Every structure is written in structure tokens, then in C-alpha cells.
Amino acid sequence: MPKNIDINSIARPNVVKLMPYRSTREDYSGEVFLDSNESSFGPANLVSNSSPPIPASQELNPLQTNRYPDPYCSKVKERLIAKLDCGLSTDNIFVSSGGDEAIDNLTRVFCRPGVDKCLICPPTFEMYEMACMINEIEVLKIDLETSNRPFQLQIDKVIQTLENDPLIKIVWLTTPGNPTGVSLNQKDLLAVLESDYKGIVGIDEAYIDFVGDGHQSMAKYVSKYNNLLLIQTMSKSFGLAGARVGFAISSPEVIKLMNSIKPPFNVSVLAQNAAFEALSPDSIKSMRRIVSEINQTRDEILVPALEKMPNVKAVLGSGDTNFILVQFCLSDGTVSNDFTKKVYEILATESKILLRNRAHMPGCNGSLRIGVGTRDEMYRFLEALEKAFEKLNKE
Ligand SMILES: Cc1ncc(COP(=O)(O)O)c(C=O)c1O
């Protein structure tokens, strides 16, 4: 059944009342811009030494970086909509400085400090909890399953908790998961959307482009459930982590509130241009080629090599992301966080290979998260790992 929650009634009243910042350029198209206290000369390093200085030409400064960017990133949105290809409009998209900004923004739109709550399902991405801690929001946790359906939702418990606590304003579900690398069952996600829960269902699809057939984006459900919000990012499959561009994709009601609290110019001219170029039809084809190389490297080189190593207990999560979650063990098969930490440290100090230690997270005992890089990087990593094991097994 379609869902049409009164979004304003679950948002923070002060946010609903807010009049967003509006620039003169949203009301008039100008030729001489004296409204924003910018420099008419252009970036100082490109301005001539003559006296008086001559403004940098359009040729030298094609992106007009002396001017504030489009506050609503319209050109980027148009291209994202074409990629999503499910009938959404620019009113469904919020462009942020990375997915991280969208997560923080959403938390501040819906959660009253000291009153409201969010629900997360560990092991998961840390920024949901960070945003809550910064904003004094209580975090409820229902761990992912570890036995029957590894790294899937404890769906009955999740739904029951959401339906019984009206103070839970956001539930964060990550698919594919980080650090799990596992896609959540779409049937479970739809069950959450179909439940009587009246808050925001935040589904984080940061790694969605790495997923093979059968686990497609939930974007097609955005027009059906007005409390569904997706996070996507240019940082992973598109290789633009340094540009900082992310997206929230949701109903126009939610997007309007997110726009109303954002800093007016949250995505730079340079970042918008990088995202716009990367979302062209040709660049998307190129992104898909790279994703396919990463997935092949993961499945045909990295995972098989690791599975042969005696000090690798199991590859816990792999198959849907540009990283894998690997559990390490002593020669007798015992999983030990201490051993894993030593592997992690030896790789970092002796081989300059950096991984992420996730051993402290629920269901991730003894595990490291390992990114999938180029084939050469994987061979270098595997060789260094063998050496680390040799050294530790002699101790
Ligand atoms: C699950 C998940 N969501 C969101 C993000 C945020 O990415 P960014 O802020 O670079 O867009 C990350 C980054 O690692 C992630 O793993």
C-alpha cells in the first residue's frame, strides 16, 4: 500500500517554520553581479599583474569559481535522475557534500535533541550514530542476525520496535552493508516500509552500483512511500571521494525540509562540475566497466587467495561491495582479536598497507575490512599478508 505520512507533523517544528535563505539570483537573472560580495576579478592567481588588474577571462576561469555555486545543483540533479531512471524529478533530490552531510542534515530535520531517537542495526556505518551523538539523539540498536541469515535484519524485532515507539524518527538500513558487504533482503526492506511505523526509513545505498543483478536500488519505491529516503554517493563507484558529493533521494516534502536547513552553497562549483561530468552517459559506462573490474578482482583473485590461507577463518561478507570482511585465526583455528590486531599493525607498519579493523563490531569478531583496489594492489597485499602470517606463526 502506498504510504503518505504527514511529513511536517513528524519533523522538528522549528525546522518546519524555517524560511530558507534565498539569494537574489533565484528571483532575477542578472548580468552584473553585485549582490553577494564576491570578487569580480576571479581567482587571484589567474588575474593579470597589470595596474589596474584585469579580471581573469572566461577561458582562464571557465567554471567561474569566483561566483557562488548553484545552491540547488540543478544540472547534477538532472543527470542523477536520468541515471536512476524511475520517473523522479529534481524535487526528489537533495545534493550534499558527501552522503555524510545528508545523514547529518536528515537527523537535524527530524530529531529533537534530547527527545527523539534513531534506530540502527550494527554492525553498520558509524556516521548515523555520530550524527545522533552530536545532536543529542538517543540511538537504539538491533544487531543484524549472525546465525541463520548472516548480516540480515532481525526483521520482526525491527518492525515491532519501530511500531511501538513513536519517538524513533529515523531507522537506518544499509544495503549493501558496511562493513558486512552484504545486501539486505528487499522483502525485509519492503516489510519495514509497509509497517505501521510513521518515521523516516533511511536506506543507505552508498555501494549500490557494485551489486549484481537482483538487488537493484530502492529508488523506484520513492514515489510510493513518502517516508522512504535513500542515500547515494559519488565517493565509491564513481571515484569522487575527494570531491564530496552525495545525495538524498526522497519525497518532495522531505527534500524541501532538508533544503531549508542546509548551508546555502553546500556543494562547490568544482564538486558540482566533477559530479556533472561523472554522471554523463559515457562516464556512467566507464564507471560500470571499473565496477566490473573491481568485482572480478574481488571474486577471482582476492577471495579465492584468502580462502586458501590457513590463518583466514572465513570471508564473512563479500560479493556486493568494493570491500570484503575477513575473519582471521591462529594456526589452531581460534579466532582472536589480538591476532587480528597484530596482522593489521604489521601490514600498516611494515608494508604500508592500510586496512580497517572491525573486530570490535557485533558479528565481526577477529575481522578486518579490506578494500578491493587494482590487481597489482591486491597482489602486493596478498604477498604482505603471507609474510605477516609467517612472522606471527613463528612467535
Ligand atoms: C554506508 C556508507 N554510507 C555513506 C557513506 C558516506 O560517504 P560520503 O560522505 O563519502 O559520500 C559511506 C562512506 O564510507 C558509507 O560507507
TrEMBL record:
GO terms for biological process: L-histidine biosynthetic process. This is histidinol-phosphate transaminase. It catalyses: L-histidinol phosphate + 2-oxoglutarate = 3-(imidazol-4-yl)-2-oxopropyl phosphate + L-glutamate. Its cofactor is pyridoxal 5'-phosphate. It holds the Pfam family Aminotran_1_2. It comes from Smittium megazygosporum. Belongs to the class-II pyridoxal-phosphate-dependent aminotransferase family. Its EC number is 2.6.1.9.
